[in-house]
Structures are given as structure tokens and as C-alpha cells.
Amino acid sequence: MKKYQLGEFEEIVILTIGILFKDAYGVAIKDEIESRLSRNVSMGALHTALVRLEDKGYIKSSPGESTEDRMGRPRRYYQITALGKKAMEYSKDTRNQLWSAIPKVALELKIVSRGV
Amino acid sequence: MKENKHLPPKLAWKFFRWYCHPKLIDHIEGDLLEVYQRRIDTIGKRKADWKFIGDVIFLFRKGIIKPSEGHRNLNAYGMYKSYLKIGWRTMLRNKGYSFINITGLALGMATAMLIGLWIYDEASANKHHKNFSSLYRVIMHRTSDGRRWTNWGVPYGLGEELESKFPDFKGVAMCDWGGRYTLANGENIINRGGHYIGEEAIRMFSFLILSGDKNPLHDPYSIVLTEETAQALFGHVNPIGKVVRMNNAYDLKVTAIVSKQPKNATLQFDILLPWALQERVNPGIVQYKTNWGNSSWQTFVQLHEQANAEGVDKKIRNVVLNHFLNDALVATSIKPQLAIFPMAKWRLYSDFENGINTGGFIKYVRMFGILGFVVLLIAAINFMNLSTARSQKRAKEIGVRKVIGSGRSELINQFMSESVLTSLFAFLFALIMAGLALPFFNELSGKEMSLQLTDPWFWGIMLTFTLFTGIVAGSYPALYLSSFNAIGVIKNNLLKNSSGSLPRKILVVVQFACSLVLMIGTIVIYLQIQHGKNRPIGFEKSGLISTGYSNDLKRNFDALENELIASRAAVSICKSNAIPTEIWAVQSGWEWQGSVPTDKMTGFSTIATEYDFVKTLGIKMVEGRDFSKDFSSDSSALIMNQAAVKRLGFKSAIGQVVKWNGKPRTVVGVVPDMQMGSPFGTVDPLMIVFYKDWVNRLCVRVNPTSPIQEALSSIKSIFNKYNPGVPFEYEFADDQYANKFNYEELVGRLSLVLTGLAVLISCLGLFGLSSFMAEQRTQEIGVRKVMGASVFTLWKMLTTSFVSLVIISILIAIPISYYVMFNWLQGYQYRVGMAWWIFVAAGFGAITITLITVSYQSIKAASVNPVTSLRSE
Fold it and tell me: Angle at the Cα of B164 (from B162 to B169), degrees rounded to 5?
């Protein structure tokens, strides 16, 4: 199924954009991911993901204001598109399906084994 | 500043700027710098530098790096998108102007479309025949009264001779001039028109045989029907093999059904009859197989592919002459000469002058082509004018665009694409308008045309034409607007009027001059038609009907006459060889006292009749009397018109003896010069001869004292009694006379419509311009009003400039239209003079229309309260 392609990191980025809602620009997204998932996000990885998401049409961007510490460079704010929302829901649904398909025993076993 | 002190490592930064995609560079750089500044505050400059370098390296990946060939837009699509968007917004912002602009252009385009369709219909006439390029008709040049005449009439025996002696012809078909026939299927009786025609014609003209025989005219007692005729006769029954009774005398077998010819085809018919049948119906015709002196038939030929038309011309040149080798007069005076005339010229190039092809209807096709173009031109001028005038409103936009870096070519592109957008809208409207107007236009022009919406050619031509109009119409604003000096435009906002308004004035003058020429032309055409209609015709055409003749009527004529007069429905009836408004026969062989030998070869218009011709037609005799039963010698009598008296050189005609074909005839009466030929031509000498049984028509003078419908119905019942089996069909002489004006009426009606449109479009333009002017001068008007100017003074001020332009165009239009119409009138011998009042009326009309158009806006502007207009600053 190649209906909606959303990589793992891409999914994190798009979710974060959703969280930040109107304040989603490069550095803010990076900070948000880093603080929530406590993992380091490189500028390269983030921007590549953003470019890809935009190419796929899941997000759209618009130029915003610039600040002093950006030396006059404008921020670029990202927003989730309708298509992006569908892709996110699809991704969530597939996960839920997979979750519900796992037999209970398997999970219990896991708990048991951990207990042991 | 802090930022200035702490800059990231230059090399890494430069590297980043070098590889990064230009579309992404701004905000990624911003992000990098933001993070860098933050890191400086938290972890110090050195570490921040390293981290920055790391970030730059991690960013060096697919998606961020610019493409190797560099970044550039491969097309200017984005720019055009912007142009169109701006164009659309401008259009919406100025709804009034846009409406005037688009409507004007659409009217012009719709007109051009319809005229184009009309020209196409004329030019494509007969092209549906598969052998279009190899089909010819035989024509004959003859000399009479010192001039060379050309017509399509050829001798009866020509077909056979051409077929048997010349190998160049793939097919030869004789044909008569057509007539109306009564067809009966049992009780179902109808009258239809058709031709006796050679059997080859079916193949030569590639008539589409819907059902039946491939060679359906082979048997002399066969008949070919069109689909519509078959339907009328037989309904839904298959007619093939059924029998139709023609003229209540001949039983013909239906051998084929063909489709009806398109309305622009030369050969029109409801039925086709075998050529061989003609000899059975009319046995007297057989003598003309050997007598080549009667040229009353037409011949169509098809050449072989390898035959050369000029060679054939030479070969057949003397075919007729060779039958008169023993008659020296024919060779020296008439000099009959045959030629073949290609189908491509039949419709539009049928005029001959002294044996030379001089054109024909094509002059009207050209004329309307030009007129259509002129109307389109006027519409395009409007468009240019309004766009140029409006340019002042957009001067700032142009200035700003130039400052930002837009070159001249971009601005030209912008205005071109805007005008193409407008013209596309206009095209859409024009298409709708043309579609709606087509039924009326068809009625007006007597055609059956349709928009060829499925034809790719139509779309190709129309879209090319739209783009062309858009580009031509947009060229002036595009070139003119883009030439503005950016600084001047922005500084002054308003342009100096003088530079922009001169071309605009010239355009207005051109536009109005065109409309005026059309106006004067139309007036002259209508006056000329009226002139012809008012011409005294020498007989009483109202209350006069003519009807067909038959063997039954011949047998019962006396009884018919008695009963008609006894019933008081008619006052008199006469036999004639033609309808009262036309001459159908021209006879030579006349000799008189003082005639020279070649006079015998001269043809005179001839009417053959018996008693009561003068009485029935209501002619006031100049001298003498009508043919009368009281004089037994009248069977060899003659009446002539005044032109004939003059031509024959008689001082007093009555009692003179004139020989016709060797037999003496005494002149008993002189009639005035009656209008029986062209209403605009000179009246030819006319001989009215008493001649038994040369009858094609019966003329009936309806009793003027009884109501016409009652009289007609009793005439009908009397005719039905004596002429059973043939539906009574009649025509009024005034209708027949009115038909003579068909050409001129068509030209008049079409030019009236075109003139109306041209004037309307011009007025639309003027309306737009005047409202613009008024708007421009709002403040000036306000100030003037405050200072005490009256509405009238302001109105005068605003209208003067337009009126003076119109006066200039009147001065230009008068000589042009005088020249053109003077030449047009030269084509008519009986013509109206061009009185001075025509020009005065047209000029006065133009000024009135201008005043009305302009006044609305100027009075509106002049009556605005100055407080509002001055506050608007």
C-alpha cells in the first residue's frame, strides 16, 4: 500500500507541527522534538524531512517575520494540509489495526517473561 | 551589536550558501543563525562554531542541495499566471469599462464571424460535388447590336455532338432551365420544381442516391425524387418502383431517391426527369436537333483528368458556327463562339462584359468582407482607445513595476496577455451572440448556415482570429504604456495629456469616419432601391396574377374565360409566353423599311400573346389599339413599345409593316416603355406579337371591386373545374416585381445591420471615453462650479472636444463615401442622384448621436455637487 507514505521521522515532524499549530517554524520544531522525545535532532535531518513533507503535499509553508538573532532572515512557518491530516490518520489507523491484531497471549507472554 | 561580533565560521557559512537550494536558503539560514546565537549564549562561541559546522555538513544532503544545473524557472508560466491574475482583478475593479470593452469587441467579433460564415457559404458553393474541379458548363458568346453578349444558353443538339465528336469529355449532360410539374400518387397531388436532365448528370454531379438505381434516368419514363418530395407523395411507403403521374398525362416510375441539394448549390430541384422524356412530352422539340438557331438549353460537361481546359476551349470554339457555314451573316455578325466555364466560377464570377469574364457577385462578397473587417476594426479601435485612456489609472503600477526591475518586454507581455484575456472573453460572448443571432441572420441573408462547432478548422481559425484581435487590439496600449518613463510616472502620477491623446483622437476620427461612410452608403443603397421601386412601370401590377398553362386549359380556354368574367371574379384574362414582369423570349429575324442586313440578326424582346394583353395588364396605350377579335387581320399584327419605335426609326409606327421571319406584320399599336427587365436598366425595344399557342402563362386581372380573397377562391374553383388534376397555383405580379430587388434588398439589409452595429460599437466606445474624461476632470469641474460655472457651460466644455472630432470625421467621410457610392451607382443605368441632403443628414445624425452619447456622462459629471467632487481628493 503506497497510498500515504509517511516515514517514522516524518511522522514525528508532522505531529510536532500539529502540536505547535501556528508557531511551527524550523527552530521551534527542532526544540519541541528535542524536549518531548529527548533526542537530538540535526538541522539537516529536520529540513530534509520538511522538504519531503512539503513535496508530498502534507504540509504547506508561508514566510513569516524575521527577528534580530536571525539577522533579518525570515522564519518559514509550516501548516498541515488536508492531505497531510489524512496521511496522519491513515498512519495512526494502520498502527491501531496492527496493535489490535496482536493476540493477547503474545502480550501477556511478554509481561510474564519480563516478570521472570 | 552583538550579532555583528559573533558571526559563524565564514568558510562553513559560505559553503552552505554555495550548495543550498535558493528557494530554501533564506529560512534555513535563519534557523541556523538563530540556533547559533542561542548556542553562543549557552555553550560559548567555540563550541557553537563547531556545532554550526556540523549542522552545515549534516544539511549537505539530497533535497537541500541545489540541482547541479542551477536553479532557474524553465518557463515564464508563473509570470503569465500573475499577469492573468492582475488582468482579471483589473477587469473586475472596472466593471463598467470592462463591460463596454468586452461587449464592443464581442459585437465586432460576432459580426466578423457571421460575415465570415456568409463568405464561407458563398465561396464553398457547389464544392460538395465530388467532381467540382472538372465540371464545366458550356457558354456561348454572340454579337448583337455591336456588343458581345455571353450566356449559358446553347442549342439542343450540342450535347450529342460534344459527346460523339470530342474525346476530352468524361461526361456530357444536357439540361433545361427547369419548370414546375404536377405529380400525382392517386389522390395525393403536389406541384414541384425540377429539370429535364441527361442521365450522365447523376454521376457527374455526384448526387447522393439514398435508394434505388445507380443510373436512374436511363429509362425515358422514369423519375428521380428528392427525399422531401418522396415523403410528400408517398409518406412512409418505400417509393422505389412506384408510379407517379406527371401533369395528369405521363406515368413515370420512381427509380431513385436522392438527397436535396444544399441551398447554395447552383442546380436546385425537387425532381429530375430524363432528358429523353422531353421529346415525348413536347414532340415539337425534335426539330431543334437539326435547327441550331435556338439556344434555349444548357449543357454541363465533365473533362477527363488529362484534358486541358484551354485546349478544349479552342477545340469546341466553332462547333455552333460550323452549323451555319452556308449563312454568311452568322459568321460575320453574330459570330457564335463556345467556351467552357468552370464550376468554381458559376456562382461568384458569372458576369461577362463584351465576352470577357468581369466578376459578378464576388464584388458583394468582397464588399461585405471589407465591411465585416471595418466593423471589427472599429471594435478593435474602441478597445485600444479605452485601454489607452485607462492607462493613466495604471501609470503608477507601471512605474512601480519598472522600478522593481520589470523590463519593457515584460510590460509588453503583461498588457498583451491582459488584452488576449479580454479578447478571449469577448470571443466567448461573441460565440454566444453569433449563435443566437444566426437564425435571424439566416433569414436576413436567405441562407441555411450553421456554426461549424465540431469542425477543428472552425476552432483553429476562430482562435487564431481571437489571438490576432487580442494582440492587435493590445499592441497599442502595450507598446504605448510600456514606454512611460518610470520616474516621471511616479513623480507626477498623471501623464501629460497632450502626448497620449493625439493618437486617441485620431482613432476616434477613424472610427467615426468608418461609421459615417457606412451610414451614407446604406442611405444611398436604400434610396436607390426606392428609386427603382418608384419607377413608373407602364402597367398595373397590383391585382394581377399569373398561373401555369396546360393542355386542358388550352382546350377549355374560351369556356374558362367566359365563366371567369361571368362570375365577376376577374375582369379579363390573356395568354402570354411569360409572366407579366419578365421577358422570357428574345427573337431575331426582324426586317423593316430601312433596316440593314445585320438587323436581321438582332434579337428583340418578344412577348407572344393573343387577345386582351393590353387590357389585362392595364397598359395605357400611347397610340393605336390592342389586338382585337373585330379585326380578322390581327392574327398577323404587331404592337411595339416606344423604344422599339425609336430603334426601328419610325416617325409614326401605326400602319408600318415589319417582317418577322419573312412574314409581314402590321403595327396596330404602341405601348409605353414598360419595366419588364431589370428595374435599374434601360428599357429594351419590345415586340408584342399575336402568336397562337406559344403560351407559358395565363394572366388574370382580378376584379378590383370584389374582395380579393373571395375573388381568388372563385377563380380557383373555376380553374379546378377546367384544369382537373392540377392544383391551382398563382403568383401576384407585384410579388414577382418585388423579387427583382432581391439582390439590392439583401445588400441593403446587410449593410443596414452592419451600419447599425458599427454605430453602436462606436457609441459604446465614445460613451466609455466620455465617462473617463468626465472622471478625470472631476476636480476641475468642482472648482469651476464653485467659481460659478453653470451646468450648461460645463456640458459645452465637455462635449465640444468630442463634437469637433466628429466634425473632422464627417469632413473625411464625405469625399470617401461620395467616391465609393458614385462608383457603385455607375453600375446602374437608372440611378438616383446623390443629393446634398444625404451627407447633411448623415452628418447631422452623427453629431446628434455623439451629443446624446456624450451628454449623459457630461451632464452627470456637471451636476455633481462640488462638495462631493472636491472632497474626493
Answer: 55
- Locate cell 491582459: which residue? B418
Cβ <8 Å between B54 and A42: yes
Chain A interface with B: residues with Cβ < 8 Å: 25-27, 30, 42-45, 47-48, 51-52, 63, 66-71, 73-76
B684 and B643 in contact (C-beta within 8 Å)?
yes
What does the radius of gyration of chain B's CA atoms come to, in whole angstroms? 40
Q: How far is it, in rounded angstroms, from Cα A6 to Cα A2?
A: 10
Mind telling me how many Å the CA of B4 is from chain A's nearest CA?
9
Complex ipTM: 0.83
Alpha helices in B139-259 (DSSP H): 158-165, 201-204, 227-234
Q: Looking at chain B, which residue has its C-alpha nearest residue A75? A: B27
- In single-letter form, the type of residue at position B45 comes to K
Cα separation, B813 vs B710, in Å, equals 54
- pLDDT of A16 reads 92
Under DSSP, the state recorded for A69 is G
List the beta bridge partners of residue B274.
B197
Q: Which single residue is written with the C-alpha cell 427547369?
A: B178
Q: Pick the residue of A10, A52, A73, A77 with the most B CBs within 10 A to test the interface with B by mutation.
A: A73
Contact B64 A75 (CB under 8 A): no
- Contact (CB<8Å) B34/A76: no
- pLDDT, tens only, B471-488: 877 777 778 777 777 777
Long-range contacts of B20-26 (CB under 8 A, 24+ apart): B20/B59, B20/B64, B20/B65, B20/B66, B21/B64, B21/B65, B21/B66, B21/B67, B21/B71, B22/B66, B22/B71, B23/B71, B24/A47, B24/A51, B24/B64, B26/A63, B26/A73, B26/A74, B26/A76
Sign of the torsion formed by the C-alpha atoms of A82, A64, B13 and A32 = negative
Look at residue B6 and tell me whether its pLDDT is greater than 80.
Answer: no
Question: For B54, which residue in chain A has the nearest alpha carbon?
Answer: A42
Measured between beta carbons, the chain B residues lying within 8 angstroms of A47 are: 24, 28, 31, 59, 63-64
Coil, strand or helix at A2: coil
pTM here is 0.72
In Å, how far from its chain's centre is CA B425?
26
